[in-house]
Design a protein that fits this description.
Shape: globular
Helix content: over 70%
Number of helices: 10
Number of strands: 0
Oligomer: single chain
Radius of gyration: 19 Å
Length: 212
């Protein structure tokens, strides 16, 4: 059987199983949110001045970036789980969060004195950020990789990396409620690195988990 014929056959089979797969994704999203919330409140909890912080644009902007990362990655992941699904257009949405972050960094460069750049970049929660975003996101990543088994991803490495982005974005959204470093410098450097770590784990694990 030619490769094209095989892909079409798998795609047709996936189509017949679409209701169970759709249900699996809904359950996975609920489980991932619950797992991330439980991990966050057990290990960290919100910052003590969250009410005052919620009135500042830098604090709120963190949730825009992390939430957009999670949503756009999850949207693409659901397509990558199906062979032959048109994922190219959905992949463009992954660039929205980085573009917003680059714009925010540019604004920060313009309004912050150069002498404060290093302090805002390093912040005071670097170790916490690099530790707890992966810890909060590891269970959601496992859940997303598990759902990939219900599909037939033809690019498992890419699908696993996107699963890591989705889990990382979700974890970073919760972590942002605890973190007192609100500068786009900090978010661009350390949030991105922590999320990228989960994407790397997903890329390595998916070919073993989502074999077909």
């Amino acid at each position: 059987m030619r490769t094209d014929d095989l892909i079409r056959a798998i795609s047709a089979d996936a189509g017949r199983r679409s209701p169970p797969l759709a249900t699996a994704w809904r359950v996975a999203i609920v489980l991932s949110l619950a797992a991330a919330a439980v991990a966050f409140f057990i290990m960290l909890g919100p910052r003590t001045d969250i009410a005052a912080a919620a009135e500042t644009p830098r604090f709120l902007f963190k949730f825009v970036v992390t939430g957009l990362t999670a949503v756009s990655a999850l949207f693409l992941l659901r397509l990558l789980a199906r062979p032959g699904a048109p994922a190219a257009r959905a992949a463009r949405y992954l660039f929205l969060a980085p573009m917003l972050l680059v714009a925010a960094v540019a604004v920060e460069l313009a309004v912050v004195p150069p002498g404060d750049y290093a302090a805002r970049l390093v912040g005071s929660n670097l170790v916490l950020c690099l530790t707890f975003i992966p810890l909060i996101g590891i269970v959601p990543l496992v859940v997303f990789l598990g759902v990939l088994r219900y599909g037939a991803p033809t690019r498992p490495v890419l699908a696993g990396a996107v699963a890591g982005l989705a889990a990382g974005g979700l974890a970073a959204t919760f972590y942002a409620a605890h973190c007192t470093d609100d500068s786009p410098f900090f978010v661009a450097a350390w949030y991105s690195l922590a999320i990228a770590g989960l994407a790397g784990v997903g890329a390595l694990a998916a070919p073993r988990v989502a074999r077909w």
